[in-house]
Write a structure and sequence with these properties.
By secondary structure, the protein is an alpha/beta fold. It has nine helices and ten strands. It has one domain: Zn peptidases (Aminopeptidase, 3-Layer(aba) Sandwich), CATH 3.40.630. Helix 5 crosses helix 9. It starts with 5 loop residues before the first helix and ends with a strand. Belongs to the peptidase M28 family.
Length: 331
C-alpha cells in the first residue's frame, strides 16, 4: 500500500524552511489533506527491502538534509539472514560548526562530535511482514513523527551550544520474519550495538531513549496503558519525564507515566536490549499492556490519538533540551 505523493513532499520541504511560522498542530495532525503533517507521511507499509521501506528512508533523509541547521546523516547498510537492512543515524553535534555531508556509514571523527557524549532517541521504522497492508500506526509511524517533530524544533535553536550530541536513530528490522526469537528480531539494533561496541563508542552513550507503540487511542480506563519506569538505573531520568508531564498536565489533561513509580520487573524485548546488555542506560517509552490492536490490521491511523502524540512530543522535547543543556552563544 503506497499512500505518498512526491509533489506533496516537495511542497513539504518548502514548509520545513518556514517552520518558525508553524506550531505543533501544523506538524502533528491526522488530516490526510494536510501539507504539513509529519504523521501522514508514514501512512504506508514499511516492510524490509520493499520500495516503501526505501521511500521511508528517503523521506527521513531528505527531511534532515533540508533542516534549518545541518545534521550529519549516516546510512548503515548490512546484510543478515538473506535480507538487506538499512539503519539511519542522524547527529546534531554539541556545537554546530562543521560543513560536510556523509551518507556512507562511517563513525564520526570530527572534534565537534567526538568531544561530547550522546543522547540517543531511537525508533524502528519497519513494519511486520506477515499482515498484508499493515501500516503500523503505533508500530511505529507515530513515534517516527514524534522524533522528526522534536528534531525540527531543536533545529530552530541554531545559535545555541549543547553539552551533548543529539543522535536520532531509525532502526530497520525490528520485527521478526517468522517466530520472534533472539536471532529473528532486532536486526538493526543488534548490528549497530555490536559495531558501537567494537569501535569503543558504546561508552560515549549517556542515555538511549527508545519509543515504541505510542500514540494509540486509550480504552475507557485511562490508566489501562501506562508507560512505566522499567529500569532502576534510569529512575532519575524517569522522574524528570514525570516532572515535565506534571508541569504540562493543566494544558494537556493527559497523564501517561506512573506517578507511583511502581516496581515493574518486566523485560520487554525491543531495540534497547542489545545496547542495555552492553551497559548503556536506557529509558523505554512503551505502554503496558500493549494496545489491543498491536500486530493486527487495526493498527491504523484511525486508532491514533493526536492529543496523546502531541503530549508525548512536548514532554520528550522538553526532556531532550534539558538533557543536552542548551546555552545561548553570544558573539
Amino acid at each position: 500500500m503506497l499512500c505518498f505523493n512526491v509533489f506533496f513532499f516537495n511542497l513539504y520541504i518548502v514548509v520545513i524552511n518556514a517552520s518558525s511560522l508553524l506550531n505543533i498542530d501544523d506538524f502533528l495532525n491526522l488530516n490526510p489533506n494536510s501539507t504539513t503533517s509529519l504523521l501522514t507521511l508514514f501512512n504506508m507499509t514499511r516492510c524490509v527491502e520493499t520500495e516503501n521501506s526505501k521511500l521511508t528512508l528517503n523521506i527521513i533523509t531528505d527531511f534532515y538534509k533540508n533542516m534549518p541547521i545541518k545534521w550529519r546523516v549516516q546510512k548503515h547498510t548490512f546484510y543478515d539472514s538473506g535480507y538487506e537492512f538499512n539503519n539511519l543515524i542522524v547527529t546534531l553535534p554539541h556545537y554546530n560548526e562543521y560543513d560536510y555531508e556523509d551518507t556512507v556509514f562511517q563513525f564520526p571523527k570530527c572534534n565537534a562530535i567526538g568531544l561530547a557524549n550522546d543522547l540517543i532517541l531511537a525508533v524502528h521504522y519497519d513494519t511486520i511482514a506477515n499482515i498484508p497492508s499493515f501500516v503500523g500506526a503505533i508500530d511505529s509511524a507515530a513515534s517516527i513523527a514524534i522524533l522528526l517533530f522534536i528534531s525540527l524544533q531543536i533545529s530552530e535553536d541554531s545559535n545555541e551550544l549543547r553539552r551533548k550530541n543529539l543522535k536520532i536513530i531509525f532502526f530497520d528490522g525490528e520485527e521478526a520474519f517468522g517466530k520472534w526469537s533472539e536471532s529473528d528480531s532486532l536486526y538493526g539494533s543488534r548490528e549497530l550495538a555490536k559495531i558501537y561496541n567494537e569501535n569503543g563508542l558504546i561508552n560515549k552513550i549517556d542515555l538511549l531513549v527508545l519509543l515504541d507503540l505510542l500514540g494509540g487511542v486509550q480504552s475507557r480506563d485511562s490508566k489501562s496503558h501506562t508507560i512505566f519506569n522499567y529500569f532502576p538505573e534510569t529512575t532519575d531520568y524517569y522522574k524528570q519525564l514525570l516532572s515535565i508531564e506534571n508541569d504540562i498536565y493543566q494544558s494537556t489533561q493527559i497523564s501517561l507515566l506512573d506517578p507511583q513509580m511502581s516496581n515493574v520487573n518486566i523485560m520487554i524485548s525491543d531495540d534497547h536490549v542489545p545496547f542495555r546488555k552492553l551497559g548503556v542506560k536506557c529509558v523505554h517509552l512503551i505502554p503496558l499492556p500493549f494496545p489491543a490492536f498491536w500486530h493486527t490490521i487495526d493498527d491504523d491511523f484511525e486508532h491514533l490519538d493526536i492529543n496523546i502524540i502531541k503530549h508525548i512530543s512536548s514532554v520528550l522535547l522538553k526532556f531532550s533540551k534539558k538533557f543536552v543543556a542548551f546555552k545561548k552563544i553570544y558573539i
